[in-house]
Amino acid sequence: MLDHQLDRRGSVVRGTFRCSPREPQPGDVPREWIDYDPNWREFIGTTFAVVLARHAAKLPRALVSALDASLRRAVEGTLDRHVPAEYTNIAPMRAFLLDWAGARLHETEWQQRGASLAEEICRDYRATGAFTEHHSPTCYGIGLYGLAL
Question: Using an 8 Å Cβ cutoff, are 22 and 15 in contact?
Answer without folding.
Answer: no
